[in-house]
Amino acid sequence: MTAVLVGAAVAMLVSLLGTPLFIRFLVKRQYGQFIRQDGPTAHLTKRGTPTMGGVVIIGATVLGYLAATIVAGRLPRASGLLLLFLMIGLGLVGFLDDFIKISRQRSLGLSARWKMVGQGVVGIAFSVLVLQFPNENLRTPASTQISLLRDTGIDLAFAGVGLGLVLFVLWANFLITAWSNAVNLTDGLDGLATGASTMVYGAYVIVLIWQSNQNCQNLSTAGPRCYEVRDPRELAIVSAAIAGAAFGFLWWNASPARIFMGDTGSLALGGALAGMTILTRTEILAVVIGGLFVIIVLSDIIQIGFFKMTGRRVFKMAPLHHHFELIGWGEVTIVIRFWIIAGLFVAGGLGIFYAEWVVG
Question: How many domains does the chain have?
C-alpha cells in the first residue's frame, strides 16, 4: 500500500510542478493549439494555447512508477512494464499527430489511416506480449478469455493456439482503439477528460487493491472467489501513478486551461485504460466504470450514422459536450456536470464489482 501511495504522490508532484515548466518551453517555441473554424465560436479564444501536455502526464507516470518500485524494493513486473509500453507507445502516436498540427498550423494531424496504423502496431505488439512471460505459476499477464468482472470462460483460443492468438489480438486491438479514441473525443473541453480519467484510474486502484488481497496466488488467503490477475499490486501502482499525474495536470488544464493534453495525452490515457481492462480481467465492467467516455463516443457514432442514413443530425454537434455548448450551456457548467456523471458511473462500476464478490 505504501508503494501505491508513493507512486500517486510522486506522479502528482512531478505533474503539478513540471507542467508550468513545460508550458514555458512550449510557449517559447510557439507550440500552440490550432482551433477548427467549424466548432463552437467560444473555442476560438483558445487558439495558441500550448498543447502536447500528455508528455508531462506520461513522464510523471513513469517517474511515479519508478519511485514506487524503489520504495517497494523489488524489480518491475511484466504487467506494469507492458502497460507502460502501451501507454508510451500510443502517446508517441498522439505526439506525432499533435506535432503535425502545430508545425503545419491546422486542426488535422495524422491522417486517419496512419493514426490507425500507429495504434495497430503498438496494439498488436502489446497483445502478443501480454500472452508471454509466464511466472512461476505459469500465469501470463493476460488470458485469451473474454472477461466481465473476471474471466468468463469464453476462450478465444477455443479453435487452437494459432487462431486463438489472432482472435485475441483482434479483440485486444478493438479495445485499445475504442478506448483511446473515446478518451480522445472526450478531450474537447478544459479539464473534462483529465478529471474523468483521474476518477476512472482512481477506481482501478481500489479494484486492484481488492484483487491483490483476494488473489489466487496468495495461497494462505485464496478462496473460491479469488482473482486470477497476474500482478495486481504492480498494476495498482501504475494506476495510482496515472491518477496522480492526471490530478496534478488538472491544476493547469482546468478552465481556463493554460495547456491541453493533446492527442499525446488522450491516446496514452485511453490506451492505458484498455490495457488495464485486459490485464485486470474487467473488459466489460470497464464500460460502466468509464461510462462517460462510452456515452461520448456513442454520441459521435449516432451522429455520423444517423446523418449518413437520413441526412439529418441528432445533435447540434458531436461529440455530446459540444451539443450542450451550442444550446447555451457554459463550458464550466458542462465539465462539472459531466464530471458528476463520470463519478456516478465510477461508483456504479465499483458497486457492481463488490456486489459480484458478495453474491458470489
Answer: 1
